[in-house]
Design brief:
It is a single chain. A six-stranded antiparallel sheet has the order 1-2-3-4-5-6. Strand 4 (157-161) and strand 5 (166-169) form a beta hairpin. By secondary structure, the chain is an alpha+beta fold. Helix content is 33%, strand content 22%. The protein contains three helices and six strands, in the order H-H-H-E-E-E-E-E-E.
Length: 181
């Protein structure tokens, strides 16, 4: 009687009793290694995604301030006796509500008119009034955008004065001293 002996002690298709194999042929150890690699990749990717989101929010805030500046210029030319608008609601308004007015000009979208967009809070402040012919005319303003949660939704705050350049506050407030490029 002749017997065939194998070097490794197993035959093809027969598993060792101490090795657990999943139905599709992967061992538990192989599966754990793949899961470990995926977790490591996720740990690297999650902080990067947060940075990308903050950067996108900051770009959105800058573009929204530019939109406010354009809307303020349109408002001033449309309502010259009023000058600039001193509130976001005056620049906003419902476009389907009928004719625009100085209190609801419909020059910015509803989301920006609420003052909260893409993790930033927008305001119009420091309005300077001049009385002309018994009527108040606003001659300057400052539009600001600050992160709703500094460090999470954005790192920098932004300011834009009437006819001026956009500046940033690296601490996320309204003490804007750095020029934005």
């Amino acid at each position: 009687m002749k017997r065939k002996f194998s070097i490794c002690g197993t035959r093809r298709g027969v598993h060792r009793p101490n090795e657990f194999t999943l139905p599709n042929g992967f061992t538990l150890m192989e599966l754990l290694i793949v899961i470990s690699i995926i977790l490591i990749l996720m740990l690297v990717a999650i902080p990067t995604a947060g940075k990308i989101r903050k950067h996108a929010n900051e770009l959105s805030a800058q573009k929204s301030l530019q939109t406010l500046e354009q809307a303020e210029s349109m408002y001033e030319s449309t309502y010259p006796t009023n000058g600039y608008a001193c509130s976001l609601t005056s620049l906003g308004g419902d476009p389907t509500a009928g004719q625009s007015s100085p209190t609801a000009a419909g020059m910015i979208n509803g989301e920006l008119a609420t003052g909260i967009k893409s993790g930033y809070i927008f305001t119009i402040t420091n309005c300077t009034k001049v009385t002309i012919n018994n009527g108040d005319r606003i001659t300057s303003y400052t539009a600001t955008a600050v992160p709703a949660t500094p460090g999470k939704t954005g790192d920098r705050g932004f300011c834009l004065e009437a006819g001026g350049a956009m500046k940033a506050d690296p601490t996320g407030g309204t003490n804007c001293t750095q020029m934005v490029q």
